[in-house]
What we know:
Elements: E1 9-16, H1 22-37, E2 43-51, E3 66-67, E4 79-85, H2 96-101, H3 105-111, E5 115-129, E6 145-153, H4 158-175, E7 179-189, E8 194-200, H5 203-215, H6 217-227, E9 230-232, E10 238-244
Amino acid sequence: xxxxxxxxxxxITWYDLPEAGKKDYLEWLHACYxxxxxxxxxxxxxxxxxxxxxxxxxxxSTGPRFSTEDPAVPTGDRxxxxxxxxxxxxxxxxxxxxxxxxxxxxxxxxxAMRSGERVNIMTEATRVEGPEAKNYRExxxxxxxxxxxxxxxxxxxxxxxxAWYSSWRMPAMSRMAGCIRTRRLASIAGxxxxxxxYEFVSLEARNHFLSSHEDSKENEESQDKIMVSLMHAPGxxxxxxxxxxxxPG
Length: 249
């Protein structure tokens, strides 16, 4: 079994930060927290992303997209932290709350800076590799640029959503220039029941190739039918740049 098949579990946190103290928090997270977490049994990799404002990337010019207005759903989305493991049990024993409660006071103060924190534990349902997978040298770690959607649909629509991703979107991503891989995720815990991570070599590749695909007449009718059945988390879908580990070169 290839290395790509090992990491099938994901702990994902979306959150915001205040301007005051943000630099200190990021230095602590990248130099202390993440290296220590990766010493834990079963933790295979971690990646930390800064999300772009919607004005900073190309979006589909038409078509529906709905976001939840439930006030109970946390709205943070400026930073996305992802851990990868072989099995979701890694993230339950010990749990996130147990690990964070055991941190020294200085670490707990840093984590308390997060606002709008939203968490999912997810398992991989489907993965396809894109044309750039053969050139990617960072193994299982998610790519320098991602588009990350997380959402729900009614149970009545779930089979149609699954069929669309399986027969249309995932095969398209396997052929898309600039794409490293695409992962579809299903939830163990958290608001979103489903998620999808598109991994790209650059923002330019994402903007050109994914947007061109979504705007195509061939795609438009089938995608619009599915999009109306999805209820996204706040901010979804995010386009984000990896800030840790640093992108080579």
